[in-house]
Amino acid sequence: MTTLMQFKDVDVHYGPIQALKKVSLTVDEGEIVTLIGANGAGKSTLLMSIFGQPRISSGEIIYRGEDISQKSAHYVASHGLAQSPEGRRIFPGMTVEENLLMGTIPIGMDHAEEDMQRMFELFPRLLERRNQRASTMSGGEQQMLAIARALMSRPKLLLLDEPSLGLAPIIVKQIFQILEDVASTGMTIFLVEQNANHALKLANRGYVMVNGEIRLTGTGAELLVNPEVRDAYLGGH
Ligand SMILES: Nc1ncnc2c1ncn2[C@@H]1O[C@H](COP(=O)(O)OP(=O)(O)OP(=O)(O)O)[C@@H](O)[C@H]1O
């Protein structure tokens, strides 16, 4: 397997607070890897550090053989990394179509029309809403739009920050079904989630983060039955 992204002993500090402590993890091509952990564990910090905000204080972030930890967000985005951020951050006043076009910024408009059609096949709901302002859509639809927008830059690695956040269980199920569909196209996915149950069922491998440290790692199936994971993240079920 080819390693696509690797964190090697990464530390991140916010002033006196150490948010990431010697974090090491790998994502291989074609895998779905999840990072689970409680509120405040450091999951978003890890994702954002890929784009240089915050900058890491030591260690390396290797992407396709190159240390990208000191590169600009634009450099990272134009080299095949796309993120659907926590809270979605779509443009509320823009239509679905306009939001999708914003996703092409890192690569240019050459394939925009063709890629938009692909997104409408993957997300039929977005086709129905293509001329609607994003702010008028439901939370689940907005999440679909955020994922589709990230895919518009033809990423090699799709980074997702808590796609289930604030959504009703039935919608969460739909979102995870879509992620399975996206993964079946060969896309490599790194998924940060508090919803351990769904995330571990979807993922090939997972990491558990506690207070900025990687506490456990294993296949999704192994972590699902791990007693510590069950107690802390699956409500003991
Ligand atoms: N900009 C910041 N300045 C100072 N401290 C921060 C900043 N952002 C995050 N932190 C702190 O760093 C730690 C990790 O936060 P982070 O948001 O990465 O956690 P998380 O696991 O993503 O949680 P959540 O699920 O709430 O997003 C927390 O203690 C948080 O308070």
UniProtKB/TrEMBL annotation:
Residues 5-236 form the ABC transporter domain. The keyword Metal-binding does not apply. It comes from the Bacteria. One of its GO terms (molecular function) is ATP hydrolysis activity. GO terms for biological process: L-amino acid transport. Belongs to the ABC transporter superfamily. Keywords: Amino-acid transport, ATP-binding, Nucleotide-binding, Transport. Signal peptide: none annotated. CDD domains: ABC_TM1139_LivF_branched (cd03224). This is High-affinity branched-chain amino acid transport ATP-binding protein. The keyword Protease does not apply. PROSITE patterns: ABC_TRANSPORTER_1, ABC_TRANSPORTER_2. Pfam families: ABC_tran.
